[in-house]
Design brief:
By secondary structure, the protein is mainly beta. It contains two helices and nine strands, in the order ββαβββββββα.
Length: 136
C-alpha cells in the first residue's frame, strides 16, 4: 500500500510565492496553507548593500536561518554577526534581530518561522517598502 503523498511539496529553484521589496525579495516555499500553520519556509535574497527588514522581534515565534549564498550580517540582541554560506542561526521568541547584506555580492538565506503564519504579513510589508521607495 502506497503512502499518501498528496500533501508533499516539491518546488524547483526559484519557484514559490514571490514578494519584491526593493533590493530585497522573498520566495515563500511553504506556509500555513500547506503546513497547517505549524511553520513557514521562505528564501530571502538581498542585493549588495541591502539593509534588510529592520530590527524587530516576535513575541511568540522562533526563527531559524540558514545562509544559502554569500555573507549575511545578523543582528542578535545588540550584536551584529557575519555569517557566510552554510551558517545556521536560531532566534528564540522575543529576541531582537535583523539581517542585512553588507557585502558587494548578492546574499541569500533560508528562513523557517515557527509556528507559521508569517506570510500573512507580506502584503503589508511589501506595501511599506513601496511607500518608502516612493517617498525617497
Amino acid at each position: 500500500m502506497a503512502e499518501d503523498d498528496s500533501r508533499s511539496i516539491m518546488l524547483e529553484k526559484g519557484e514559490g510565492r514571490h514578494y519584491a521589496m526593493g533590493a530585497m525579495r522573498a520566495v515563500f516555499k511553504a506556509d500555513e496553507a500547506e503546513t497547517g500553520c505549524r511553520y513557514s519556509v521562505s528564501e530571502w535574497w538581498l542585493e549588495p548593500g541591502c539593509e534588510g527588514p529592520g530590527a524587530h522581534s516576535h513575541d511568540a515565534n522562533e526563527e531559524l536561518f540558514y545562509v544559502l549564498e554569500g555573507t549575511m550580517s545578523f543582528l542578535v540582541g545588540d550584536t551584529w554577526r557575519d555569517a557566510s554560506a552554510g551558517a545556521f542561526l536560531r532566534i528564540p521568541a522575543g529576541v531582537l534581530h535583523d539581517f542585512s547584506n553588507r557585502t558587494d555580492a548578492r546574499a541569500g538565506l533560508l528562513n523557517v518561522f515557527l509556528p507559521g503564519g508569517f506570510e500573512r504579513n507580506m502584503p503589508m510589508i511589501v506595501d511599506w517598502f513601496e511607500k518608502q521607495s516612493d517617498a525617497g
